[in-house]
Design goal:
The complex is a heterodimer of chains A (258) and B (158).
Chain A: H1 2-38, H2 40-51, H3 55-79, H4 86-124, H5 127-133, H6 138-176, H7 181-191, H8 194-222, H9 227-257
Chain B: H1 3-29, E1 40-47, E2 58-61, E3 64-75, E4 80-88, E5 100-105, E6 112-117, E7 130-131, E8 133-135, H2 140-157
Parallel strand pairs in B: 1-7, 2-6, 5-8
Antiparallel strand pairs in B: 1-4, 2-3, 3-4, 5-6
Chain lengths: 258, 158
């Protein structure tokens, strides 16, 4: 019985200290901005591997999500003779919810896991200790550029996702199902408010980008430096990021649209 | 071309596409591109009942949008709703001051908007002037109620 409580207590304290380490990591990450300003190349290289290489999956996913929204929306709306609201429906669901959320989930799977594995392996092969031996702070030099690359990439990727989604919805709705083009675009522009919908969607994706890359970078830096430890950290990155994104999305939606 | 330069180019392309997508979201998909942001002049109208009229609803003449509703408030002194409209400055001095403002509905279940029927006066609406002739929004329950009441009266008269 006592053992049970002891293990519960140990688990609770371990979780709490890990949370504390994760928050303490934020200071050197922000301090690393100085290193990035001095050597912009660090950030550019990471923007390539974190952002550019994620474009393809984001673009394809956005296009297909938009096409599915167009089809399903048309099926429901045509029952009420409201096909003209299709453009508004597709754009609103993409800009407000699906764009930021699905981009963040895909980003966590495509780029977040890679970040964790890369940093974890650097730790396991003692490259990070090597940097410290050369008086280079790995938190500033290795972690910060990756963190800021993710923070910059996710909002841009979410915008690409939403745009291509609208394009997909328009291809299916306007091209395949014959919804009136003018009604599609006018309904969209009438219904979507720049401040309420677009800006709030961008704020969401900035928050998701922050959380996803923060988790990825921390898990890699904090992993047990063995092959098993790296694999566990990579799994944790994807699971924690996804749950954090979905949970935060509810909170943000309640704050913004509630 | 060396690898460094290629990476730089790709990152530049990525940033450009991303910002272009943001710009498209703002201008094409939201109402920022269509919203009239130039100079407007203010016209006020008082309605007995505005129904479901909302701020930013269009103001039209002959079906063409000439402005937007800017503010709606309730005046407790004469128990009426005060609707402030911003009309595009190019129409200043071109709308007769005995024009008639109505609250209409686009389609059966559509949004409500303000329609202005031009009058025949020589004088025109100025900044801050009030449209005296108004017609309230059609509230479905009241219409149905009147219809039933009318039927009842008919029955009693026989």
């Amino acid at each position: 019985m006592l053992n049970l409580f002891a293990s519960l207590g140990a688990w609770g304290m371990a979780s709490l200290t890990r949370l504390g380490r994760a928050h303490l990591l934020l200071f050197p990450l922000v301090r690393g901005l100085l290193d990035i300003l001095r050597r912009p190349r660090l950030l550019v290289d990471q923007l390539f591997s974190v952002g550019v290489l994620t474009i393809l999956i984001i673009a394809v996913a956005g296009l297909f999500v938009g096409m599915v929204l167009g089809l399903q929306g048309y099926n429901v709306l045509s029952r009420f003779g409201g096909e003209t609201a299709l453009g508004f429906m597709v754009a609103a669901s993409l800009v407000r919810e699906l764009g930021p959320v699905l981009t963040a989930l895909l980003f966590a799977g495509r780029a977040g896991s890679a970040l964790t594995a890369e940093i974890g392996l650097m730790k396991a092969t003692e490259q990070l200790s090597g940097l410290e031996m050369m008086a280079v702070n790995p938190e500033h030099r290795v972690l910060a550029p990756r963190f800021f690359a993710g923070l910059i990439s996710v909002p841009l990727l979410a915008a690409i996702f939403s745009c291509l989604g609208v394009l997909g919805g328009w291809m299916v709705g306007g091209g395949l199902l014959g919804v009136d083009q003018a009604a599609f675009w006018n309904g969209m522009q009438e219904g979507i408010d720049f401040h309420d919908d677009v800006i709030n969607g961008v704020i969401k994706s900035v928050v998701f980008g922050f959380v996803c890359t923060w988790i990825a970078v921390f898990q890699g830096y904090d992993c047990v430096p063995t092959s098993e430890g790296v694999s566990r950290a990579t799994t944790r990155t994807v699971v924690h990021s996804s749950l954090a994104v979905l949970g935060l999305d509810f909170v943000l939606t309640a704050l913004m649209f509630g | 071309m060396d690898k460094k330069r290629q990476i730089e180019i790709w990152v530049g392309v990525f940033m450009a596409i991303g910002f272009a997508a943001l710009f498209l979201l703002a201008m094409q998909i939201s109402n920022l591109g269509t919203a009239y942001s130039g100079d407007t002049f203010r016209v006020v109208a008082r309605f007995d009942n505005i129904g479901g009229l909302k701020v930013k609803a269009p103001v039209t003449i002959a079906g063409v949008e000439v402005g937007r509703v800017q503010a709606i408030r309730y005046d407790p002194d004469d128990f009426r709703a005060v609707v402030e409209m911003g009309i595009q400055a190019q129409y200043l001095g071109k709308i007769p001051d005995d024009s008639f403002a109505k609250i209409l509905t686009a389609g059966l279940l559509g949004e409500q908007y303000v329609g202005i029927d031009p009058g025949g006066s020589e004088d025109a609406l100025k900044d801050g002037s009030e449209i005296a002739l108004t017609q309230s929004a059609l509230v479905l329950e009241e219409v149905v109620g009147q219809f039933i009441f009318g039927k009842g009266q008919e029955g009693a008269g026989k």
